[in-house]
Write a structure and sequence with these properties.
This protein is mainly β. The protein has three helices and 18 strands. The strands form two sheets. The protein has a 15-stranded mixed beta sheet with strand order 9-8-7-6-5-4-3-2-18-17-16-15-14-13-10. A three-stranded antiparallel beta sheet has the order 1-12-11. The protein starts with a strand and ends with a strand. About 9% of the residues have low confidence.
Length: 254
């Protein structure tokens, strides 16, 4: 079954960060100008709500410069007497190859992931360790980073899936296969990997900040997760909402 999109060129532009699309590269170079400065692809914040109560805010930015992109995020808890903060920085090439991933938290400890030959190497530092521990993963450098609490990583995964699933239909629009996309993913904070499947469901009317909006729904699943994600077709397919029913959790773009 095919799902037809009009004006899908926006996804081709955004997906330059993970796929070598000639047209999108040309658009990006035009946006960046002759000076080659970084172009902001998306920025903003997500509110994380558990049982309707806001418990954290993720502030993020996605920037593209030349043949690489940087996805930076900061998560701040909004409850408790000593709210924790986490930061991450994911750097990838235009073909989705990992350059570097870094995570740290305010209470101490950090994780760095680097490609090494056919492996990914995770370097783990704790507040009490004298030197980082290393853990190898037999995974290619194009594996997806889906770290805990950073929902912007899910947006990047959606763009990557749509860029592969959707092709020009010859009339200015795109047709998208509803065939699921399968990805190997690394969760650095858990020091673990998993297999995830994402698939396009279609358009749905949902409420965002009290207003009904027509959004495109995708499902993200694995043996451990079952999430619904909604993106805005009219606004560069930005991630707008995530529902995690098993945890009574919703994530909504501010």
């Amino acid at each position: 079954m095919k799902f037809y999109l009009q004006g899908f060129r926006a996804v081709a532009v955004l997906a330059a960060m993970v796929l070598p699309l000639a047209s999108s590269r040309a658009a990006d170079k035009k946006d960046q100008g002759k000076a080659g400065s970084a172009a902001t692809v998306d920025s903003g914040s997500f509110g994380v709500f558990v049982k309707g109560q806001r418990v954290a805010t993720e502030t993020f930015s996605i920037q593209q410069e030349g043949e690489s992109s940087s996805i930076k995020s900061q998560l701040k808890e909004t409850t408790g007497s000593d709210p924790a903060t986490q930061k991450s920085n994911l750097e990838i090439t235009s073909t989705g190859q990992l350059i570097r991933y870094e995570w740290s938290q305010s209470s101490g400890g950090s994780v760095t992931v680097l490609p090494k030959n056919e492996f990914l190497i995770e370097k783990i530092s704790t507040p009490t360790s004298s030197k980082p521990m290393e853990q190898p993963f037999l995974m290619p450098g194009t594996s997806v980073i889906l770290d805990n609490n950073f929902f912007v990583h899910r947006e990047v995964l959606v763009w990557r899936y749509l860029a592969a699933a959707c092709k020009p239909d010859g009339s200015g629009g795109f047709k998208c296969s509803r065939e699921p996309g399968d990805f190997g993913a690394l969760i650095p904070q858990d020091h673990s990997s998993l297999h995830v499947r994402i698939e396009l469901v279609g358009k749905e009317k949902i409420q965002v900040h009290g207003a009904d909006r027509d959004m495109m729904r995708l499902n993200l699943k694995s043996d451990e997760i079952d999430w619904a994600l909604w993106v805005d077709e009219q606004d560069h397919f930005k991630l707008m909402k995530v529902a995690i029913p098993a945890d009574n959790t919703e994530v909504i773009r501010d």
